[in-house]
From TrEMBL:
Top-level taxon: Eukaryota
A Pfam cross-reference name: FBA_1
Organism: Citrus clementina (Clementine)
Protein name, UniProt field: F-box domain-containing protein
Domain (F-box) ranges: 1-37
Length: 353
C-alpha cells in the first residue's frame, strides 16, 4: 500500500523523501519502482509538441519544440520553448521513458533527465565508417524486466555519398547497458528487407521496443508496414504484422503508439473521412476498437493523448485535439507541418555514477 501511494508522488517530493530512511532511498533507486512511478504518473504527464513552423517566414521554416505546462491542456496558452530548458539542444530526441537523448556529432550521445536535472555523456561509439557516412539513426530505450535495469538500443544506417546510395547491408546495432556504463556491438538480424530510413521514434511496451517500419522499398502512396520489435531481456528482434487495413493506407494516414496501454494504430480513412483505432490486446491479434463519425476538413492522424483523446491535423495544417466520446474538437492555434507529440513524463531515473 505504501509503495502504491509513493508511486503517485511527483519526483520533486520523492527526492526529498529519500532522506526519510534507507529503505525508501533504495526503493526510489530501484528500476522496478522507477518503472512503476512512470506508469502511475499519467495524470501529471505534459505534452511536448514538435513541428515545423513557417508562420514567421515561409521561406525559412524552423523546427519548434513546445512544452505545454498544463497537464490537463485546459489552458493551452501556457507553453514554453523546450530548447531553452535543455542543457544541450544538439539533435534533441524524445523524451522517452522520461529521458531526452541528444546526438552530438553522431558518435557521442548525452542523456538528460529534466525532472532530476541529471546529464550524462555516454562512452563514444566505435563506428565502422566515418561520421559523414551516417544516414539515419534509430534507437529504443526501455527496461529489461528480467535483469531489472535499463538498456538503450542504437541502430546506425550508413550511405555512400559518392554513389548516393543507402548501404542497407552495413547497419550497426549497439546496446548500451546502464548497469555497467558500456556499449556492446550487437548484430544478429537481417535488416535488408526493412527500410529503416523512414522509421519514426520507438514505442516501449511490456519489456520490448517497437518501431513501425516499411517492409521493402518505401512508396509514398502505399507501403506495407510491419512492427519491428526488440525484446530487451532476450535481445531478440521479431517482426509483428499490423492489421490488414495498413496494406491500403498511405504512410501519412497512420500513426503507431500506445492507446489505453496497448499497442495501437490510429488510421485515417480517407474515403469515409473518419479515424479508426486498432489495438493489439492479445499477441498478434488486432481488434478495431471503434471508428469516429466523419470529421470534415482533416487529413492526418498525429498521435494518441490521454483519456481516449487523440491529435489530428486539419487540411489547413492546424493541430486539433479530438475527443471521440464527446466529439469535441479543440484547435491548438499552432499552424505548421510534420507534427509529432511526446509525453513529458517525470522520471526518477538517475544518470549519476
Amino acid at each position: 500500500m505504501v509503495v502504491e501511494i509513493l508511486s503517485k508522488f511527483p519526483v520533486k517530493s520523492l527526492l526529498r523523501f529519500r532522506c526519510v530512511c534507507k529503505s525508501w532511498y533504495e526503493l526510489f533507486e530501484s528500476p522496478s519502482f522507477i518503472s512503476k512511478h512512470l506508469k502511475a504518473g499519467n495524470s501529471n504527464t505534459r505534452l511536448i509538441l514538435r513541428y515545423v513552423d513557417s508562420s514567421d517566414d515561409p521561406e525559412f521554416p524552423r523546427l519548434r519544440d513546445c512544452l505545454f505546462l498544463d497537464p490537463t491542456l485546459a489552458n493551452i496558452s501556457l507553453e514554453e520553448d523546450l530548447l531553452l530548458l535543455m542543457p544541450i539542444d544538439d539533435h534533441l530526441r524524445g523524451p522517452f521513458e522520461g529521458l531526452f537523448i541528444m546526438f552530438i556529432g553522431g558518435d557521442e550521445i548525452a542523456l538528460y533527465n529534466r525532472a532530476t536535472r541529471d546529464l550524462k555523456f555516454l562512452p563514444k561509439l566505435t563506428l565502422i565508417d566515418n561520421l559523414e557516412s551516417i544516414y539515419t539513426i534509430m534507437f529504443g530505450l526501455g527496461l529489461d524486466p528480467k535483469c531489472n535495469y535499463y538498456k538503450l538500443v542504437y541502430i546506425v544506417t550508413y550511405h555512400d555519398s559518392e554513389l548516393g546510395e543507402v548501404l542497407n547491408d552495413s547497419r550497426q546495432v549497439f546496446i548500451y547497458s546502464f548497469s555497467d556504463n558500456s556499449w556492446r556491438n550487437f548484430q544478429v538480424f537481417e535488416f535488408g528487407t526493412y527500410d529503416l530510413n523512414e522509421v519514426l521514434d520507438c514505442t516501449y511496451h511490456n519489456g520490448a521496443c517497437h518501431w513501425l517500419v516499411p517492409f521493402g522499398p518505401f512508396h509514398p502512396l502505399c507501403c506495407h508496414y510491419v512492427i519491428l520489435s526488440f525484446d530487451m531481456s532476450d535481445e531478440v528482434f521479431e517482426e509483428i504484422q499490423g492489421p490488414n487495413c495498413l496494406l491500403e493506407i498511405a504512410p501519412e494516414h497512420t500513426v503507431f503508439g500506445l492507446y489505453n496501454d496497448s499497442l495501437s494504430f490510429l488510421v485515417f480513412d480517407e474515403r469515409e473521412s473518419c479515424f479508426d483505432i486498432w489495438t493489439m490486446k492479445e499477441r498478434y491479434h488486432w481488434t478495431k476498437e471503434f471508428s469516429t463519425t466523419p470529421i470534415l476538413a482533416v487529413d492526418a492522424p498525429i498521435g494518441f493523448w490521454k483519456n481516449d483523446t487523440f491529435f489530428i491535423g486539419s487540411n489547413t495544417e492546424e493541430l486539433l485535439l479530438y475527443d471521440p466520446n464527446s466529439e469535441e474538437i479543440i484547435d491548438f492555434q499552432h499552424k505548421g507541418c510534420c507534427f509529432t507529440i511526446f509525453f513529458d513524463k517525470e522520471s526518477l531515473f538517475t544518470l549519476k555514477g
